[in-house]
Amino acid sequence: MNKTGLKNRSLVFGGIVVIISLVFIARLGHIQLISSDWSNYAGRLTEEREALDPMRGKFLDRNGALIVSNIASYDLLITPRKAKNLDTIALGKVLGLEYEALKKRLDKAAAYSRYVPSIMVKQLNAQEFAMMSKDLMNFPGIKSKTRSVRSNVAGVAGHILGEYREVDRADIRGDAYYQLGDYKGKSGLESSFEQSLRGIPGARYHIVDVRNNVQETLLELDTMPIPGKDVTLTIDVELQKYAEKLLRGKRGSVVAIEPETGEILAIVSAPFYDANSLTGTRRGSVYDSLNTHPWKPLYNRALRGTYRPGSIFKMVQGLIALDEGVISANTTIACNRSIIGCHGPHTADNLTDAISHSCNPYFYEVMRRVVLKGRDPNPLKDASIGLTNWNEKIKEFGFGTKLGGHIPWVRPGSIPNALVYDKIYGKNHWGYKTIYSISIGEGELLTTPLQMANLAAIIGNRGYYREPHPVRDIGGLGKPAGIDSIHTLDILPKHFETVVNAMQKVIEDPNGTGNLAQIEGMTICGKTGTVQNKGKEDHSVFIAFAPRDNPKIALSVYVEYAGAGGAWAAPIAGLLVEKYLTDTVSNTLREERILAFQP
Amino acid sequence: MTLRESSIYKNIDWSLVILVGVLMFFGLLNVVSATSNLEIADWFDWSGKGGKQLMWILICSFLGFLILNIESEFFIRTSVLQYLLTLVLLVAVLIVGKKIGGARSWFGLGGMSLQPSEFAKPTTALLLAWYLSRDATKWRSLKVRFLSFLIVGIPAGLILLQPDAGTVLVFAGFVFVLYREGLSGNILILGFGALLIAIATILIGTTTVHYPFFGTESGIGVFWIAWIAIGTGIVFLAKYLTVPRKRKKISRWGIASIVAGLMVSIGLHLGMETVLKSHQRDRIHVLFGIDVNNPDADYNIRHAKAAIGSGGFSGKGWMHGPMTAYSFVPEQETDFIFCTVGEEWGFAGSVLVILLFTLFILRVIVIAERQRSNFTRIYAYGVASIFFMHLFVNVGMVLGLAPVIGIPLPFFSYGGSSLIGFTFLIAVLIRLDGERFRILR
Hints:
The complex is a heterodimer of chains A (599) and B (441). Chain A is built from 22 helices and 20 strands. With 599 residues, chain A is an alpha+beta fold. Chain A has a domain at 49-233: Penicillin-binding protein 2a (Domain 2), CATH 3.90.1310. In chain A, the strands form six sheets. In chain A, strands 2, 3, 4, 5, 10 and 16 form a six-stranded mixed beta sheet that branches. Chain A has a five-stranded antiparallel beta sheet with strand order 12-11-20-19-18, with helices on both faces. In chain A, strands 1-8-9 form a three-stranded antiparallel beta sheet. Chain B is mainly alpha-helical. Helix content of chain B is 69%, strand content 5%. The longest helix of chain B has 33 residues, at 337-369. At the A-B interface, helix 1 and helix 2 of A face helix 9, helix 14, helix 15, helix 16 and helix 17 of B.
């Protein structure tokens, strides 16, 4: 090859240099200018967003007393990379964990990320944390994170308040607000008012180094968390406490309502549990033992327990009959015990006496008159039409409905209609004689303690109720709209006076069944109920309101497997009424008897 | 004497001096940034790597000044000696060297480390220039070709034993010198063809195919069978489409190509499977976008690209790159220094650096071609090749275009040995070029 030919080879070499440079520049242009993938990736690597948890709204009682607030708890986090050469045995001792259990958590953390801290132990309380924090200093790569958890300061109303705990996968999927490890109200009012309580989280942005250590804080991007709204309940914490005290060791419930407003003053389901025991490290074992206890302490009897209403239902029958005009206040009906059994020495009663004597034949006849009105010549068809009409009347009292009021997880109970019996016996194969047991509150009727307290409120109000509700105010904005809708029954107020008279007699008449509810210097109206349990002790039931005019409290009391309504539920109701209205308990003997009672 | 000295400063290529100065200064800024922390207000610390690099730059400036005042005759006459000395050092380092990062490439001297392979590059360039420029030398003689390959091959082989694949790759750049001196241009075409086969081998090597009787094995077998079948078909077709007198040549070259390609592919595939360690294989697979089981395999390159990508057009500003400051990229002040350029100086700064290097290499080529002295021309080509290979491999690696092979970016990467090596390389060239009017060699 000649000399110029070789000289031209410099152009080939130079050309290669230039081409490679252009390739590099093109690549740079792609990475730096066109694609944002790599700069986004760098952002993910270097910027850490620290969520600032907002303070969750508190629960206050109707007078502003604190029920639930927040306290600090401590999570322990481990960064596997920094925890090299970890003395797992010593660490297990400090944490009180078995070696195997600890190893499992450490492996899980290491599998998730070697640089990012993972939670190793959750929700240590201040005491537990203080005890181990000094020892933990010896373990590199372990740090703590403060998190606020719920503290039920008053130690009451665990059932209705519900649980605040870690979100599950469904929660995260359903609401972008939540991330892994976040907490939310999972049941009760914590859940119903989650949106108001939770607040808006803030964020702080950091620049982190390759080991995820915070190096800088980017102040300009920070947002402060907005605390959740406080929720003022309608609960009277003193009354709630006292009711829980009286029901301790028993199964049953108390629901107390302010009749005029529908505000729930107290709501207890027994057996109850320490609301604070379901937070923190013990939650798992506590929950398991509650869940397997034969008395079902997790079950909220006040809202979800369904019982046959028994004699108390007779007042409802009487009211409907008066309104339908099939009886008047003075109508007497013979106590014909050949049709249906009865008790007591009476032979013929008017409505007032029939209620206070709890006369069964009277109400058999009353309901017969309501149902069989001769709307159809065929008595079977007539019964069907009559029952449908009756069912609608009953539902006005809130029976068979959830009552509204934004209370979570309420059961409606059941009031049978014609379809129910058509299903059991076949269409036109049943008559009044088939279904008469519902006339005295037995048979296919099921009602809840909440509905029974509401019935007391309806009678105390002489014909209307506001939906029983648990919340007075959210964040200073008053009650949520529609929480206390008013329902006025299509029954004249004067008919109620007849029933109210009877209820007064139940307590004040020497032969009344509710004598034990009586309070010196106070007019209480009430009605006992006894729910039969085959082969077992009856459930003791009582509803009442007081004072007789412009009542301030209406309530239902259930004590399961305790006996007659007058024996246990009535005195409990009396004590609660006195406690609420006068803030004292005069009859300490009665109180002691109740406290000592363990059915 | 005075006449000579004044004339050397009159005739040296100041553009090269300025380019080197700019590159060194810019490199120093980046080393300082890569080795300091955003929060340290007193950013310059003499005991830190920035301070040391400045010290090395001052030492190199003095060294460069010294070299400019040494008669070029000295380098020519001592080239054999220097080369032999280098070989001794390369052998010694294999025996008494310090092992850093799996390679026995350093001598530990007190607190410092010396990397003899950095000095092997200039001494090899000098010896090759000396050997090829002797009057008797005629490129076409087989002996000269063989000895030329040997001059490059011996130090390269010793370095491969360390092992330092990156520096060996730089020695492969001497092929450009030989090409300029008359080696057939087919060598570049062959190299390109071999590269294509290698890429195909790597890509197909990871696929699996179910073979009758053999079970599930790498898909490369299909590639080899197809290579033979299609290659043979093409040769036969070509043979019958051409005039008879060319047929013999076609079948000879065709069969040779098929066999050679097959050898490259089989050799590479077996080499990948047996010789390479799994992390090295992973690095190559990562480069070609093949999924590897090891999530850390592309850790360096992912972080390197993220750092560069986050620079955008104008960069985060000097000392303001979080990925640089918080050591997201391993070896950022040495082999991955270009990440700092990318993150803190952005597209503008990165392109500027590449353009400066391109300008630098092209300038060296221009200087090479203006020589009357064969020695200087050949040496200059050696210099250009070495710098080109460093730029190509280092920046290519950082940009994810070449496998992760650690070699420094000239004048940028932190480290005394490489800085001295490059200074020596370029200072000798400037001195030789400065004498271009005086002597006719």
